[in-house]
C-alpha cells in the first residue's frame, strides 16, 4: 500500500516537464476534440499564445499525441522576441500547461517551467 506522503512525492517527481518527454510524437487529426480545452485540433491550430499578463508570446504550431486520434500536448512556436528561449525553437507543452483565454491559449507556469519543456523536432 502506498502511503499518502509517498504518493505525493511520486506524483511530484513524475508530473514535471521532463516526465512528459516522449520519443515519437504524432500530429493529431484536425477533427479530434481536445477534451481538456473543449475545442477541436483545427480550432486550436494557429491560435495565439499569451503569457500570464496577456501578452502574445507565440502561436500554436501543432497538437500532438501518441496517435493521430489522441491529443496530449500543444506545440508552441515561441516568438524570438519573447526571450523565453535562446534559439527559435518550438516547445511541447502538456495540455495541463495551457488554458483557453478568450481567443488565445494562456501558458501556465513561469519562464523556468517553459524552458524545461521538450523541444519539438518535426
Structure description:
It is a single chain. The strands form two sheets. Strands 1, 4, 5, 6, 7, 8 and 9 form a seven-stranded mixed β-sheet that branches. Strands 2-3 form a two-stranded antiparallel sheet. The termini are far apart. Helices cover about 20% and strands about 30% of the residues. With about 120 residues, it is α+β, with helices and mostly antiparallel strands. The longest helix is centred in the first third of the chain and has 11 residues, at about 5-15. The chain has helices at about 5-15, 15-20, 40-45, 110-115; strands spanning about 25, 35, 40, 50, 55-65, 75-80, 90-95, 100, 105. Strand 4 and strand 5 (about 55-65) form a beta hairpin. It has one domain: SH3 type barrels. The model is unreliable at about 1-20 (pLDDT under 50). It contains four helices and nine strands, in the order ααβββαββββββα.
Q: Which sheet architecture does the biggest sheet show?
A: 7 strands, mixed
- Using only C-alpha atoms, the radius of gyration works out to 15 Å
What class would the helix/strand composition place it in? alpha+beta
Q: Could you say what the CATH architecture is?
A: Roll
Instruction: Report low-confidence residues grouped into runs of 5 or more.
Output: 1-19
Overall number of strands: 9
CATH topology: SH3 type barrels
N-C termini distance: 42 Å
Helix count equals 4
Beta strand %:
25-35%
Number of domains: 1
The helix content, as a percent range, equals 10-25%
Helices and strands, in order, run as HHEEEHEEEEEEH
CATH superfamily: PRC-barrel domain
What oligomerization state is this entry in?
single chain
Query: What would the average pLDDT be, to the nearest integer?
Result: 82
Amino acid at each position: 500500500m502506498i502511503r499518502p506522503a509517498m504518493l505525493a512525492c511520486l506524483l511530484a517527481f513524475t508530473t514535471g516537464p521532463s516526465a512528459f518527454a516522449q520519443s515519437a510524437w504524432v500530429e493529431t487529426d484536425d477533427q479530434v476534440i481536445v477534451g481538456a480545452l473543449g475545442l477541436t485540433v483545427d480550432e486550436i491550430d494557429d491560435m495565439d499564445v499569451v503569457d500570464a499578463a496577456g501578452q502574445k508570446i507565440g502561436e500554436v504550431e501543432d497538437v500532438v499525441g501518441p496517435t493521430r486520434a489522441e491529443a496530449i500536448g500543444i506545440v508552441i512556436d515561441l516568438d524570438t522576441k519573447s526571450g523565453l528561449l535562446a534559439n527559435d525553437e518550438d516547445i511541447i507543452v502538456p495540455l495541463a500547461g495551457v488554458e483557453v483565454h478568450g481567443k488565445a491559449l494562456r501558458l501556465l507556469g513561469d519562464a523556468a517551467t517553459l524552458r524545461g519543456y521538450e523541444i519539438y523536432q518535426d
